[in-house]
């Protein structure tokens, strides 16, 4: 008797980010140093470029490849940036921010407490992807979010 194949492989979630970069091997090394990523597989194309690789950060799976413009796959650098942000919760956002910057990320916003209960920071990795790093520090009732945001904006503040 055959065991049915699971439609979502073991350990994966419904949505898995797939990153495209200009140097996937270097990106994997950066993610290991900056975020403690663990590479789980790598498929090489002729010439050594990465056709597909996978890694995890904590319990989150990611997929990555080198850019292949002929296949409609471009990196953020070629697109002039990216509108997509990756949000990652950490036990200590201050230490995580320092580690990412030390590994080569560009700081965008240093760690700061936010009205929704997170302490948050933002970096751009050397490959053009934006990471929002956060540690949850307070449970705030979601019904308070709009009033807190309105007060911040009225005071001339900006939302992260």
Largest sheet: 4 strands, mixed
How many domains? The number is 2
Order of helices and strands: EHEEEHEHEEEH
Q: How much helix, percentage-wise, in residues? A: 10-25%
Low-confidence sequence ranges? none
The first-level CATH class name of the largest domain: Alpha Beta
Q: In what order do the strands lie side by side in the largest sheet?
A: 1-4-3-2
Please tally the helical runs, counting DSSP H or I stretches of 4 or more residues: 4
Q: Using the CA coordinates, give the radius of gyration.
A: 18 Å
**Quaternary:** single chain
CATH architecture of the largest domain: 2-Layer Sandwich
Instruction: Count the beta strands.
Output: 8
Structural class: alpha/beta
CATH topology of the largest domain: Signal recognition particle alu RNA binding heterodimer, srp9/1
Q: Please state the average pLDDT score.
A: 93
Q: What shape does the CA trace take?
A: globular
Distance between the termini: 54 Å
Strand content: 25-35%
Protein name: Glyoxalase
Provide an overview of this structure.
The protein is about 25% helix and about 35% strand. With about 160 residues, the protein is of the alpha/beta class. The protein has 2 domains: about 15-70, Signal recognition particle alu RNA binding heterodimer, srp9/1; about 80-150, Signal recognition particle alu RNA binding heterodimer, srp9/1. Strands 1-4-3-2 form a 4-stranded mixed sheet, covered by helices on one side. Helix 1 (about 25-35) packs antiparallel against helix 3. The termini are far apart. The mean pLDDT is about 95.
């Amino acid at each position: 008797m055959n065991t049915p194949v699971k439609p979502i492989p073991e350990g994966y979630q419904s949505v898995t980010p797939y990153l495209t970069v200009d140097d996937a091997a270097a990106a994997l090394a950066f993610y290991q140093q900056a975020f403690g990523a663990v590479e789980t597989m790598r498929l090489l194309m002729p010439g050594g470029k990465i056709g597909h690789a996978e890694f995890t950060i904590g319990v989150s799976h990611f997929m990555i490849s080198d850019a292949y413009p002929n296949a409609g796959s471009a990196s953020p650098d070629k697109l002039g940036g990216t509108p997509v942000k990756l949000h990652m919760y950490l036990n200590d956002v201050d230490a995580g921010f320092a580690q990412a910057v030390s590994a080569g990320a560009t700081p965008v916003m240093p760690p700061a407490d936010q009205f929704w209960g997170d302490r948050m920071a933002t970096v751009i990795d050397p490959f053009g992807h934006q990471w929002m790093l956060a540690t949850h520090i307070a449970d705030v009732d979601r019904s308070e979010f709009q009033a807190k945001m309105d007060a911040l904006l009225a005071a001339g503040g900006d939302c992260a």
